[in-house]
Amino acid sequence: MDLSIQEVATLTGTTSRTLRHYDAIGLLPPTRIAGNGYRHYDHAALVRLQRILLLRELGLGLPAIAEVLTHQSTPARALLSHVSLLRAEQERLGRQIAAVERTIETVSKGEETMTGNMFDGFDHTQYREEVEDRWGKEAYADSDAYWRGKDSAGKSLWKENVATLNGAWIAACASGAAPDSAAAQGLARRHVQWLASIPGTPAAKPDGDVRGYVLGVAEMYVADARFAANYGGAKGAGFVRDALAIHVEREL
């Protein structure tokens, strides 16, 4: 395979300018440069480009992507982490589609939909009892009011940001980065900022026990398989926990 820069841009939906920028910063050098000065790319370069574009979709900046690519042992291992994330999102969307299709079917028949089936893949109240047990009814009430106060666009954006953060954690873990690396600590900082943005959590309160809360949440990611799945499984959850613990020790 030997594609020109224009062919690669057309194939991938990116631009020649972007590809030239990736070359300039050392992220994606061309396989060869032809006599006419055009950049050309082989199959290995296209695999690397796929990884770059996937990591961009997950919200990583170019410096972080460079670190991931530097530490990742094999392209296949990195792509497996992306597949895990995409399948989790596919499963959630599949549940939403099925719920809406059930509603369409019952409404078309003039029947009432069972409310318990209407919001599969949408429900944010499934952890209510756990939240109230851990942090009190006020914490759940505040966060619930915060969520219900968002319009559909706001909810979609929030979910997108969470998926981006989770995906960045998975990618960083798959890259072989250490929990105390710059990439992992940058994610830990973003994670704490995200926790602090949710009303009702101790991290959002001026007098809250932020250190204890973050460490407790981090341990919960590992102990509960439902949360660990957000980070690609037990290994990914352990990576997040360790990175957050280091962040807490250094900065909180």
Structural account:
It is a single chain. With 252 residues, this protein is mainly α. The protein starts with a strand and ends with a helix. It is globular. It has two domains: 3-57, Multidrug-efflux Transporter Regulator, Chain: A, Domain 2; 124-251, no CATH class. Helices cover 69% and strands 3% of the residues. Helix 5 packs antiparallel against helix 9 (152-174), helix 9 (152-174) packs antiparallel against helix 10 and helix 11 packs antiparallel against helix 13. Strands 1-3-2 form a three-stranded antiparallel sheet.
Structural class of the secondary elements?
mainly alpha
Distance from first to last alpha carbon: 51 Å
How many domains make up the coordinates?
Answer: 2
Strand order of the largest sheet: 1-3-2
- CA-based shape: globular
Number of helices: 13
What fraction strand? Answer: under 5%
Helix residue percentage: 55-70%
The whole-angstrom Rg is 22 Å
What integer is the average pLDDT?
80
Oligomer: single chain
The topology string of helices and strands comes to EHHEEHHHHHHHHHHH
Number of strands: 3
